[in-house]
């Protein structure tokens, strides 16, 4: 049932992203919603609030990896205005933002590789694979996201 719910959620987010393709802010939000759902599942397993499941762990890693490959395409010049938390540093330090995206892509690719075909064998392997990915999330939010206090 959980796998079905994940698949439906991913499909809905994909559809909303495609429908909003002409609106980079809407696409960014859809991608971040998918990331938040994946991080939520991962966090629940890591806190043992949800029983560890390698297939769910793999799905979370794959979602984060997919976002890493596409996210940077949705920050065109001029898309910093409007209903967004994208910080001006994205455009003011484009090289720094690209370096953060490149690191995110590298770390998610490594997590996909480490998780094998069926997902990480156990919780410790999952934590080792996803830890660097979550470090990227934190760093990018600190440096390239407007903080709403």
UniProtKB/TrEMBL annotation:
Endpoints of the signal sequence: 1-21
This protein's GO CC annotations: periplasmic space
InterPro entries, sorted: Cyt_c/b562, Cyt_c_II, Cyt_c_prime
Chain sites annotated for binding heme c: 137, 140-141
One Gene Ontology biological process: electron transport chain
Keywords from the UniProt entry: Electron transport, Heme, Iron, Metal-binding, Signal, Transport
PTM comment text: Binds 1 heme group per subunit.
GO MF annotations, alphabetized: electron transfer activity; heme binding; iron ion binding
SUPFAM superfamilies with a match to the protein in the record: Cytochromes
Protein name: Cytochrome c556
Native species: Nitratireductor aquibiodomus
């Amino acid at each position: 049932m959980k796998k079905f719910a994940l698949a439906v959620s991913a499909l809905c987010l994909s559809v909303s992203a495609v429908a909003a393709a002409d609106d980079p802010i809407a696409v960014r939000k859809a991608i971040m919603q998918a990331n938040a759902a994946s991080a939520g599942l991962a966090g629940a397993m890591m806190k043992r609030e949800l029983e560890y499941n390698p297939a769910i762990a793999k799905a979370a890693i794959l979602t984060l990896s997919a976002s890493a490959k596409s996210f940077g395409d949705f920050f065109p010049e001029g898309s910093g205005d409007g209903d967004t938390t994208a910080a001006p540093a994205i455009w003011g330090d484009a090289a720094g933002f690209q370096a953060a995206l490149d690191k995110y892509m590298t770390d998610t690719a490594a997590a996909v590789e480490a998780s094998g075909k069926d997902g990480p064998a156990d919780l410790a392997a999952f934590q080792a694979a996803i830890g660097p990915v979550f470090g990227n999330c934190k760093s990018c939010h600190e440096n390239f996201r407007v903080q709403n206090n």
